[in-house]
């Protein structure tokens, strides 16, 4: 028996060795494959977790942008309302009428802009006609300028905040991905941890301080720019002229095109240096006008930081040269984005969304409260029994502006559920810009 077994083993020894080797190799190979599959699954889980974390952080940053915008809105609109005080002009017109002994007018601007009021005011004696005409002209220009200045200043603020916060948040996105890939902690722990380097929080705070320039300097420069464009388009349009909303919208669109062309033009920083009170200009450089509205001259940056931060912060900031270096890097990246054609396109889109949100409401109010003021429309209605064509309805420009002014106030309402501001902050192009900033890890 045993001899038979020994003979069999001796006779098939090579086969047994090969079989044993194959089985061993197969077993080891299966263990290796199982290990690699497990590693791949873990890596895939980490990548999915990283994507989910970054997506969550990105979405939160966009929400933070909107909340930050709303918090800055009162500071943005206050100088605009002060500079373009339509209500003061309205009060002067009201006082002028009272001094003449004419019937008093309503505090509602729509009441003082009806056709009979305009015609009566323009039929006064020659001694006072010029003053009256100037007041009405001033009312027209300021109403339109305030309307478009609010829209464009808010568009610029939206762009600025999105760029700033996404540039800063990008660092935490990258840290989140790296730490999640290398750490043994749970995902929840990683989300709860602060990933922003404390050493970089100082220059980042300084970087965010530059919003002050638009709120205090840039918006007033924008008022001047838009007023010039308004005068170019509306100067020859009388308050007594009857316009349909399509005609009025066309004039507004012409003004927008003029504004957009001006924002693309280059200008020297010299005037901004003079306004900032600097005795010597470090350098006179030519830059896009949109950049001069959003960022201060290089020689004014320290003064701006002094105006917007505490002495303790400034002392800490100046302790290390790396703070100034990082701030310069952040501002250079921001400047490069602001010079891009893509940003100009987004500003135009934001302004268009704002205008297109207001004008239909103006038309709806005109139709519901005032009907059609066009004499041609009245004659047409007498000769036909068909429904009146809304598109042919016309109103005097004075009445249109009287209805536009209260609707313009919606642009300055810092409510979270403000539909106009929410729509402007959620255009797809803005998300694409934010995503491109976040994904630019090479800077």
Tell me the span between the first and last alpha carbons: 81 Å
Strand segment count: 4
Which percent band covers the strand fraction?
Answer: under 5%
Order of SSEs, N→C?
HHHHHHHHHEHEHEHHHHHHEHHH
Shape: elongated
Main β-sheet description? 2 strands, antiparallel
Mean pLDDT: 79
Number of helices, where a helix is a run of at least 4 consecutive DSSP H or I residues: 20
Low-confidence parts: 103-110, 112-130, 184-198, 278-282, 373-390
Gyration radius (Cα, Å) is 33 Å
Please tell me the total number of domains.
Answer: 1
How much helicity do the residues have? over 70%
Query: How are strands sequenced across the largest beta sheet?
Result: 1-4
Provide the structure class.
mainly alpha
Can you tell me about this structure?
- The protein is mainly α and 443 residues long.
- The chain has one domain.
- The chain has 20 helices and four strands.
- The strands form two sheets. The chain has a two-stranded antiparallel sheet with strand order 1-4. A two-stranded antiparallel ribbon has the order 2-3.
- Helix 2 (13-83) packs antiparallel against helix 6, helix 2 packs across helix 9 (211-234) and helix 16 (341-370) packs antiparallel against helix 19 (419-425).
- 30% of the residues are buried.
- Mean pLDDT is 79; it is low at 103-110, 112-130, 184-198, 278-282 and 373-390.
């Amino acid at each position: 028996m045993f001899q038979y077994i020994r003979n069999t083993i001796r006779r098939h020894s090579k086969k047994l060795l090969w079989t044993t080797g194959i089985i061993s190799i197969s077993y080891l190979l299966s263990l290796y494959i199982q290990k690699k599959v497990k590693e791949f699954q873990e890596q895939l889980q980490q990548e999915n977790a990283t994507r989910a974390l970054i997506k969550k952080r990105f979405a939160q940053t966009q929400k933070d942008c909107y909340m930050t915008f709303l918090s800055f809105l009162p500071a943005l609109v206050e100088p605009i309302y002060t500079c373009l005080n339509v209500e003061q002009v309205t009060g002067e017109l009201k006082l002028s009428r009272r001094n003449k002994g004419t019937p008093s007018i309503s505090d509602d601007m729509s009441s003082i802009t009806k056709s009979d009021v305009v015609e009566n005011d323009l039929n006064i004696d020659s001694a006072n006609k010029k003053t009256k005409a100037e007041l009405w002209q001033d009312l027209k220009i300021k109403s339109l300028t305030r309307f478009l200045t609010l829209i464009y200043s808010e568009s610029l603020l939206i762009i600025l905040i999105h760029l700033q916060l996404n540039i800063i948040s990008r660092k935490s996105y990258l840290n989140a991905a790296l730490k999640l890939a290398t750490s043994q902690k749970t995902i929840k722990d990683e989300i709860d941890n602060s990933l922003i380097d404390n050493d970089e929080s100082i220059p980042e705070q300084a970087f965010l301080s530059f919003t002050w320039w638009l709120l205090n300097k840039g918006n007033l420069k924008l008022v001047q720019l838009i007023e010039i464009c308004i005068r170019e388009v509306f100067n020859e349009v009388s308050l007594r002229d009857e316009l349909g909303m399509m005609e009025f919208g066309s004039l507004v669109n012409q003004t927008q095109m003029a504004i957009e062309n001006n924002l693309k033009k280059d200008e020297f920083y010299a005037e901004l240096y003079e306004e900032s009170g600097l005795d010597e200009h470090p350098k006179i450089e030519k830059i896009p006008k949109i950049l001069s509205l959003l960022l201060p001259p290089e020689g004014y940056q320290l003064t701006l930081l002094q105006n917007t931060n505490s002495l303790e912060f400034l002392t800490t900031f100046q302790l290390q040269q790396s703070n100034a270096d990082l701030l310069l890097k952040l501002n250079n990246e921001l400047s490069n984005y602001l010079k891009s054609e893509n940003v100009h396109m987004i500003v135009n889109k934001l302004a268009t969304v704002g205008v297109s949100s207001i004008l239909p409401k103006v038309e709806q109010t005109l139709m519901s409260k005032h009907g059609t003021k066009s004499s041609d429309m009245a004659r047409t209605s007498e000769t036909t029994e068909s429904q009146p064509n809304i598109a042919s309805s016309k109103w005097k420009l004075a009445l249109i502006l009287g209805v536009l002014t209260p609707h313009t106030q919606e642009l300055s309402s810092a409510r979270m559920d403000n539909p106009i501001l929410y729509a402007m902050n959620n255009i797809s192009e803005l998300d694409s810009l934010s995503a491109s900033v976040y994904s630019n890890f090479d800077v």
